[in-house]
Amino acid sequence: MSSKEIRPSSIDGIKRLAKSIKVAQGIQHTEALDVAARAAGYQNYRHASNFLSKVNSDSRIDLGHRVFITTSWKNRKDGSEGREILTVMLTTLWSDLIAVSQFDYHRAFNGFRPEGPDHLARRTSVQSQSEARRAACALARTLQFMDVTKLRPSNSHSKAYPGGRSTNAVPGRDHYSIWYDRNTRRYLFADEPYEKAAESLAAARTEWAQRHRFVIQKPEWTGMYNPDGGSQLYLIADAERGIPLDPIVAALNRLAAPIDEKTWNGESTPLIPIFVSPGAISNVKTPKLDSKQQKKSGGQHNSVKYIQTFVGPSRRPKDRMPIDAHIEIGGLLKSVLVVSSERNGVYNRLNSVRSELDEWVQREYNREELSDEVFFDIYYHESGHQFSRSISHAESSRHINSLERVKQILGKHYPDSPPLRTLLKKVDSAISSMRTWAS
Questions:
Q1: What are the tens digits of pLDDT across the range 48-77?
Q2: Which one, of 203, 191, 189, 190, lies nearest residue 238 by Cα?
Q3: 68, 86, 144, 214: which is deepest, by most CB within 10 A?
């Protein structure tokens, strides 16, 4: 086994791996310790030693909850590439602050997916190291906002505006987001315009608040969007029915200055070895089924367990499908997805299918076998969306044939198992919706 595949979980394990790395790479012992510690999911050996020694000395110590935010990047001009890793400490698990289904409700989560109970990773590479760091910092700031306020992002815009109409929004709104309190079911509006723009409309914004009986407050903590670039956070809520702002502002003002690229304190690493967080490592150990359990599992012995994007332990078929087959399926799915964005019965099911297959292919092939450039485009990056309310019978038949081909390929390369049957059922449901869509 390559040292790149070893993920030690203790100081002794890190030291043992470091000895092997020292010999194999011909480097100093201290450097080898850092390399081994990074393989275990820590920033360096000192980071690992500090954390693990505290855990071992007193398991009752509340160290808080850390989340690793990782973003990969590749500069197409000079070919340079890497991964940025930012560690953020929270008072609770990130999964207690937001559900995966709510990732679409705030810009900072766009492109990220869970890779473990303590790890959020960006799905695709960005163009530069700077862009990768900015994305990680924006997500970190948003998590900190959620951690201290315990608010969740929402897409219920009508509940945050006067009269429930977006046309009544505050003058000069920009980079805005909607937030709600799960306990009180109340809402507030977070507006993050650039300061000069907000100042030029200060009178109009004040008049708007008085007319609609809303409250506007500006915390000292400068916000989530782009504080180092001049944006400023304003909290806006209905004076009677909205979230009371005083406690929210007080909580935000206790935060340190927002994390940004200028004060970056994360780690920059190569793309290989793949980063696996300590939380993910501890959750992937799965007991094997005995023969009796296998017989009762209905094909479960043809599948293996893995950790899926926060959903937790999931299963995928035991065998792996050829990369060319993944690429063919990805092309077929994307050809249907680009025409079905207005048909939820088709789009949502196929979007779920490709998300699952995207998870499977990552675990079937390592980066040496499947490069990032190929992987990122297999199931995503389709272009030319058509916003069609209806399609012809001829188009419907063509797309149904594509989906039947998807089923054929899946059945050819994967053994019968519960995860495969679930996936095929989603494709069948999409086909049924496609048949009734044609006009």
A1: 776 565 444 433 333 378 899 999 999 888
A2: 189
A3: 68
